[in-house]
Amino acid sequence: MHRKDSTPSTFVIHSDIRIQYAGLFLLKEMVEGQSIFSAHPDDDECVLEPILNWLHQSFYVRLNRHNEFVITKRGLEHVQSFLARYSAFMEEYDVFSGVDLKAKDFAIRYYNTFQDEPEWHGFLQEERWEDLRIAIAEYQGFDATEITFMRFVHDSRFGRYNNMWNYECLLGAIWDEIQGVCNNSVRLKTLACQHSEQSSETLLQDILDRGRKLMQELSD
Question: Tens of pLDDT along 94-131?
Fold first, then answer.
């Protein structure tokens, strides 16, 4: 019999959170891509106005004498903290995208045996593989929304469409998709109900240790 609190909370990503993450993305573009944003944008950059205004009001950017936004010390510290988490995610989390909980095996072990990406993704769809990235993130105390956002950024699915800034890719439909990924993923509480013979924390720590060991082996 399940406990009353066995159902994980539902993720709802409100407009203010969308603005904040979109702002982080623009700061990342300013730091890594050396992007320049004007206080008087034209064409496709008009979609950035509410995000740039929020960054300005939050003192993450300021206007220079050319009426261009430049990143402040506060903004730099904010985005550097995000980029450190982003880097850690890139290095560690993909190993948990396909885990066989019964065999304690990882799909990524077999990645190099496939000829192309469609074949690999077909392999990942096999029933034995569970995507535990959200559950691992929750176990480690990370924000599942941020982790999923990072995945979309890494896959070049955020911000632009056909190399043009796009509202739906910044503040619109993309967030409904991110929200859906979070809510449809295996969660920490779900594992607690499915594997009553072992606490979810013990199970995930074991998976975490095994995944890290495998990635070390594959990188040697």
Answer: 899 899 988 999 999 999 999 899 999 999 999 999 99
Phi/psi zone of residue 11: left (φ > 0), alpha (ψ -120 to 50 degrees), beta? beta
Domain count, the chain: 1
Q: Which residue range forms the structural domain that includes residue 22?
A: 15-219
Q: How far apart are CA 41 and CA 45, in angstroms?
A: 5
| Reported confidence tier of residue 213, pLDDT bands at 50, 70, 90 | very high
Using CA atoms, how far apart are residues 14 and 130, in angstroms rounded to an integer? 28
Residue 193 has pLDDT above 80, yes or no: no
3-state secondary structure of 89: helix
Is 6 a member of any domain?
A: no
> Which residues make beta-bridge pairs with 100?
105
Q: What is the mean pLDDT of residues 83-93?
A: 82
Mean pLDDT, the chain, integer: 88
d(CA 170, CA 17) in angstroms, rounded, equals: 12
Using DSSP bridges, classify how beta strands 68-71 and 160-161 pair: parallel, antiparallel or unpaired.
unpaired
Task: List the structure tokens of 29.
Answer: 């573009």
Strand (E) positions, the chain? 37-38, 61-63, 68-71, 99-100, 105-106, 160-161, 164-165
Distance separating alpha carbons of residues 51 and 74, to the nearest angstrom:
16
- Could you tell me whether strands 164-165 and 160-161 are parallel, antiparallel, or unpaired per DSSP bridges? antiparallel
Indicate whether 136 belongs to any domain. yes
